[in-house]
Design a protein that fits this description.
Blueprint (H helix, E strand, L loop, with lengths): L1 H26 L3 H17 L7 E8 L5 E2 L27 E5 L5 E12 L5 H8 L2 E6 L4 E5 L6 H9 L4 E9 L7
Antiparallel strand pairs: 1-2, 1-3, 3-4, 4-6, 4-7, 5-6
């Protein structure tokens, strides 16, 4: 009988503590709650800007083995993306890549293609046509599609345009690791 009384006493104390603590957690919007909310918003924003924190080198083209290829266009002398690209072009053919270095300082290869994740998958061919990008691959079973931006000087502009679409959840650069060897 003593244990039953003791258990009721602890249960009542626990219940009182829970009631007292609950209003401050439910009603209070502390700065930590706001920072967490802002952190979630920042993550969402960076998911739509895959170019933040990366360096894109447009001074050379390489193959999948990271071997230097001839640079046909003498206008491709800039080593990073710049603003307007109305009269300049930088295109990559099949098997050609440029180097990208992220915040981790690992050099990856980029062929100009991006992976777009959608809330609901549109007709991917029509979507590519409307955004003036090339449709590469259908991954609609995981709500994604792979598209290629042909003029790399337009990369930031095209990503910004795609990010404005409310149906787009995430944009990723389609990167290849040249350190991995195929057998």
């Amino acid at each position: 009988m003593f244990r039953v009384i003791n258990m009721k006493k602890y249960s009542i104390n626990f219940l009182l503590l829970l009631i007292i603590a609950s209003p401050s957690n439910i009603l209070g919007n502390t700065e930590n709650d706001i920072k967490i909310l802002q952190g979630k918003l920042l993550v969402q924003k960076s998911a739509l800007n895959p170019l933040s924190g990366v360096d894109i080198f447009l001074d050379k083209k390489v193959n999948f083995k990271n071997e230097l290829l001839d640079l046909n266009n003498t206008d491709n002398s800039a080593n990073k993306l710049s603003g307007s690209s109305s009269d300049r072009t930088f295109t990559l053919n099949k098997g050609e890549f440029i180097q990208i270095q992220g915040t981790d300082k690992i050099t990856m290869l980029f062929d100009g293609s991006i992976i777009i994740k959608f809330n609901s998958v549109p007709n991917l061919s029509d979507y590519a046509f409307s955004k003036e990008i090339e449709f590469i691959s259908d991954l609609s079973n995981i709500k994604r599609g792979i598209f290629k931006i042909n003029n790399l000087y337009d990369l930031q502009m095209k990503i910004n345009e795609i990010a404005l679409d409310k149906n787009v959840v995430d944009i990723e650069l389609n990167l290849f690791d040249s350190r991995l060897k195929t057998e």
